[in-house]
Amino acid sequence: MVVAQIPGHGPVYAQHPQFPPPPAQTFPGYRPGPFVGHPQYPGHPQYPGHPQYPGGPHHPGAYGAPLPRKRASVAAVAVGTVLLLGLFRLLLSPDRVEEARVQETSTFTLPPIQAITPPPLVIDTEPPTGKVQAQVGARMSPECDLDEALLERAQTRNRVEGSSDSYFANCDYQTLADADTGYRDLRITVGTFDYPDIRNNWFDEEYGRRWDEVRELPGVGERAKVMLRPTDRYGEMVRVKVVSGVHIYEVAYGGMVRDSYFADPIPVDEAEAIAMEVLHALLAR
After folding, report:
1. pLDDT digits (tens, 9 = 90+) for 34-74
2. pLDDT, mean over the chain
3. 241 pairs with which residues across the strands?
4. Which value, to the nearest 10 degrees, does the dihedral of the CA atoms of residues 266, 267, 268, 273 take?
5. Distance between CA 176 and CA 133 in Å, rounded?
6. How far apart are CA 146 and CA 68, in angstroms?
């Protein structure tokens, strides 16, 4: 039996000689009678016992009322939800989670963290003066150049700077690195002035400095004095000034027991003795 569907018409059953006709059946909801408005086709008789359906198979009375589409959609969503829940349950089962954790642990093992020990913090509590250096070898003015033996006793064998002009000659000696100890500074000024007022003004001028002790030095030139500041750390511990004839002399000396401005100053008696020895060497020329 072959079923043919003609647009706008109900089903038509074609009978073939090799197939027997179907038995007569009665379907619930069927209403017997011929198709209303549907003519019969020649050579296709009606099957006995098969009622005709008014309006065709899509008529509201045919095969009962169709299922609402909303119920079908809800049923499909319910079936999909059940399937997804089953899949999640399978994936999130304790055995699967443990297996994944073991696999992750064995595959991505981080190297051990090694502790980094920072270098020790060294704080220099006594920064050097920066003046103790190798021999500069500056050329000194003849008026204030000293012999090596005297410079060794003063621990200022480094000839740092020498200069001169029409009135003054200046020489600066400091501690020689790897030869002298601590830090010492010796500065000498020798000048020549024909006018007594200029010499006396120079002798009295102190440029605003304050000294802990000032003493006259009788028997040294026309005028002489020594000024002391025992706690000075910048090479101004002792200063001696002398006026002798048309010449003036100034010797400044000081230092620390170590190469640091924070170190203790050298004994003031030692500094004064060195300054006076240098002064007498200059006056003896």
Report:
1. 444 445 555 555 555 555 545 444 444 444 555 555 555 66
2. 77
3. 225, 250
4. -100
5. 6
6. 125
Residue with tokens 């006026």: 243
Sheet holding 247-256, edge to edge: 158-164, 168-174, 183-192, 247-256, 238-244, 223-228, 213-216
Q: Which of 221, 198, 219 is nearest to 282 (CA)?
A: 221
Give per-residue pLDDT as tens, 230-272: 988 666 899 999 999 999 999 999 999 988 878 889 999 999 9
Q: Is 47 exposed, middle or buried (0-12, 13-18, 19+ CB in 10 A)?
A: middle
E strand or H helix at 268, and its extent? helix 268-283
Q: Point out the least confidently predicted range of 9-18, 168-177, 222-231.
A: 9-18
Max distance between CA atoms of the chain, in angstroms, equals: 168
DSSP-derived 3-state class of residue 161: strand
The single-letter DSSP state of residue 7 is T
pLDDT score for 146: 97
DSSP state, residue 4: E
**158 torsion bin: left (phi>0), alpha (psi -120 to 50), beta (else):** beta
Q: Give CA–CA dist 145/191, Å, rounded.
A: 14
Q: Which amino acid is at 239?
A: R
Instruction: Kindly state the tokens that stand for 33.
Output: 């009678």
